[in-house]
Amino acid sequence: MQELPVVAKIDPTNSKIKKTRLAEVKLPIGESYKHVRGLVDTHKLHTICESGNCPNMGECWGEGTATFMILGNTCTRSCGFCAVATGRPDPVDWDEPQRVAEAINLMMVKHAVLTSVDRDELKDGGSIIWYNTIKAVKALNPDTTLETLIPDFKGYADQVQRIIDAAPDVVSHNMETVERLSRQVRIQAKYRRSLEVLRVLKEGGMRTKTGIMLGLGEKKGGSYSKHGRSCSRRCRCTYTWPIPSANKKTFTS
Question: What is the pLDDT of residues 158-186, one digit of tens each?
């Protein structure tokens, strides 16, 4: 996995550095956390919360929810910003869709989120498991809205169409950054291909969404306007410490 270069280092013991509330991480404790932990373990599931080393895991699990990651926890791609392991994935688990649906049912959440690793080695790109999981979740949890964060499926229209046919409430596919930095940030992905995936989803009647990371070296006035034509919603966030003097991780053009 590609490491992001650190431009400046911060001494965490320096009491003069004022950390914002956003820099605080909630410890994973409480009955709700234990409940989610038990569901994940019992149903032998993966979450992006754990595999991606998300600092918000304690907060989300403490509220009784989690983002399930299907198709295993080993990705065939090696994006520089992502902590999920890269390598040869395990064989597809065809019983996983039903276990995910049952876990969401036991969590009794109003809104559920699914994501996955990339499975470029599979002929269907993992789209069949995606379809089966969405259908299983909707069948067992008719009152729960379902959001899906999908890979690009290498742009294959038939695989993207499977997501449209399964009809989740929201389909998200993250652009991650501006076009100038895309090749460095998402090594095996293609910026224009992701735009096309969003376009196909939107024209297929899906409520679409994309996510953009800030602080990777984009320039003032960098254009995100291209996403707007294919997205119902855009989210912007940062992977950097939210204070001016913090460690700044950047990509250069």
Answer: 999 999 999 999 999 999 888 888 888 88
CA distance 252 to 129: 37
**Dist. CA 248–CA 216, nearest whole Å:** 8
Contact, 238 vs 205, CB < 8 A? no
Task: Report the predicted TM-score, pTM, of the whole model to 2 decimal places.
Answer: 0.78
Give the separation between CA 87 and CA 77, rounded to whole angstroms: 8
Rounded to a whole number, what is the largest CA-CA distance in the chain?
Answer: 55
231 pLDDT band, cuts 50/70/90, is: low
| Closest alpha carbon to 71 in 123, 132, 4, 119 | 119
- Split at pLDDT 50, 70, 90, the class of 18 is low
Place of tokens 């959440």: 109
How many whole angstroms from its chain centre is CA 147? Answer: 11
205 three-class SS: coil
What b/e sequence results for 206-235 when a residue is b if at least 16 CB atoms lie within 10 Å of its CB, and e otherwise? bebbbbbbebbbbeeeeebeebeebbeeee
- 117-127 burial code (b ≥16 CB/10 A, e <16): bbbbebebbbb
Question: Taking the mean position of all CA atoms in its chain, how far away is CA 239?
Answer: 13
Instruction: Round to whole Å and give the CA distance between 125 and 231.
Output: 23
Three-class secondary structure of residue 170 per DSSP: strand
Rounded Cα–Cα distance for residues 69 and 105 (Å) = 16
pLDDT at 5: 44
Q: Any idea how long the chain is?
A: 253
pLDDT at 183: 85
Count CB-CB contacts under 10 A for residue 183: 15
What are the two backbone dihedrals, phi and then psi, of residue 106, each rounded to the nearest 5 degrees? -70, -25
